[in-house]
């Protein structure tokens, strides 16, 4: 598993969590691939996963894990119990490319070639069957039309394809969705999935949206606010990055309700909250004879603890899909994303059904 943003909160929680579950220190709570529909579909075991990645930050993974434990994201004791696994992953982290707007003098082509070489080297040296590339780096602003350089997320995505690796975009950044990469993605013969993990507010929306539509209740307005800190909160304080995130959240409503209701989503950076997010939704709706009603929901989640099991799931599913020779966008994995591939449902129940069908496909049953 090759993580772009390998020293971030989500990546560190995934590496530490995988080791803790493998060692039997914690149950695999939140990992959908550990539930009965996924038994016997040939997924790689958690103990067989090997981690590496790219990041632009220096902080060693064991230290990052200690910071997360101090913030209550990882249980105390886990960083020391899995110190060897964290150190092993840290030794496989390579320095990534320049951040947006910065340049280290290399062209896009040179950067792609260098990232792809890092990936091939990882697979060869560690004797791996394959590497799945998962983007969990900081959210980038939406690319400006006519920009001559590819955003960093798209350089890594292009490198993944060049190295023959399946690719997952767990962020709202462009990644493989950049129009310049469409031809290479289409001809790569590789499976890929994305984008932007669905872990909190949008997860709830993908359940509640269909409920209002199926009960024929008229949603007048759906407004939301998110308070969070950590690296993600800081990145999303940039309105252009938040716009990329909010587009996915709003798409779920338009898809499940039939049209976008009035209302906006806001994201506020509150550094002292760290990884603990509060997401509040206010839904104004009409019932029979125009009776006016309101539903409010408050989600208080630990973002990395919600995301980490999902990226482990996705890496296992993509690895098996690659082994089975599947290629192209995996629409059946829309269950995991805010912005699933075109044509796939945005309603969680239908997405779950598609995911269970996908498990059968991985088993070799069905198309
Ligand atoms: N519940 C969730 O946590 C959740 C849900 C959906 C999406 N996401 C997305 O996952 C991503 C990671 O979230 P996080 O909380 O771990 O953030 P984080 O800030 O803790 O980690 C991001 C990491 O990316 C690295 N990075 C930044 N630019 C890079 C570049 N050009 N090359 C390589 N590495 C780079 C940073 O140094 C950092 O280590 C964010 O984009 C977030 O929006 C998270």
UniProtKB/TrEMBL annotation:
> Which Pfam family is one of those matched by this entry?
Inos-1-P_synth
Classify the source by domain of life: Bacteria
InterPro entries (alphabetical): Myo-inos-1-P_Synthase (IPR002587), Myo-inos-1-P_Synthase_GAPDH (IPR013021), NAD(P)-bd_dom_sf (IPR036291)
Regions that span the bilayer: none
Q: Which Gene3D superfamilies match?
A: Dihydrodipicolinate Reductase, domain 2, NAD(P)-binding Rossmann-like Domain
SUPFAM superfamilies tied to this protein: Glyceraldehyde-3-phosphate dehydrogenase-like, C-terminal domain (SSF55347), NAD(P)-binding Rossmann-fold domains (SSF51735)
Instruction: Write out the similarity annotation.
Output: Belongs to the myo-inositol 1-phosphate synthase family.
Q: What name goes with this protein?
A: Inositol-3-phosphate synthase
Q: Which organism is it from?
A: Streptomyces rectiviolaceus
């Amino acid at each position: 598993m090759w993580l772009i943003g390998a020293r971030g909160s989500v990546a560190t929680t995934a590496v530490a969590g995988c080791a803790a579950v493998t060692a039997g220190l914690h149950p695999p709570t939140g990992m959908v691939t550990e539930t009965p529909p996924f038994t016997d579909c040939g997924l790689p075991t958690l103990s067989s996963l090997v981690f590496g990645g790219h990041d632009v930050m220096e902080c060693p993974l064991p230290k990052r894990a200690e910071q997360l434990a101090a913030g209550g994201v990882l249980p105390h004791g886990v960083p020391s119990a899995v110190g060897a696994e964290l150190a092993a992953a840290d030794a496989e982290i390579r320095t990534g490319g320049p951040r947006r707007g910065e340049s280290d003098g290399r062209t896009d082509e040179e950067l792609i070639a260098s990232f792809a070489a890092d990936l091939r080297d990882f697979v060869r040296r560690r004797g791996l069957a394959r590497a799945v590339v998962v983007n969990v780096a900081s959210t980038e602003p939406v690319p400006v039309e006519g920009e001559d350089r590819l955003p960093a997320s798209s350089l890594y995505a292009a490198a993944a394809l060049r190295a023959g690796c399946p690719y997952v975009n767990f962020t709202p950044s462009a990644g493989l969705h950049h129009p310049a990469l469409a031809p290479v993605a289409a001809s790569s013969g590789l499976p890929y999935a994305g984008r932007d993990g669905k872990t909190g507010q949008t997860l709830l929306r993908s359940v509640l949206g269909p409920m209002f539509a199926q009960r024929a209740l008229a949603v007048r307005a759906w407004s939301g606010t998110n308070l969070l800190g950590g690296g993600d909160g800081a990145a999303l304080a940039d309105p252009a990055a938040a716009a990329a995130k909010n587009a996915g959240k709003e798409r779920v409503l338009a898809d499940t309700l039939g049209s976008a209701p009035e209302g906006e989503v806001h994201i506020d950076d509150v550094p002292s909250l760290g990884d603990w997010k509060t997401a509040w939704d206010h839904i104004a709706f009409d019932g029979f004879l125009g009776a006016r009603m309101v539903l409010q929901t408050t989600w208080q989640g630990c973002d990395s603890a919600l995301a980490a099991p999902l990226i482990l799931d996705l890496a296992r599913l993509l690895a098996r899909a690659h082994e089975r020779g599947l290629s192209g966008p995996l629409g059946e994995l829309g269950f995991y994303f805010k912005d699933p591939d075109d044509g796939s449902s945005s309603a969680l129940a239908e997405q779950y059904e598609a995911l269970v069908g996908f498990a059968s496909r991985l088993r070799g049953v069905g198309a």
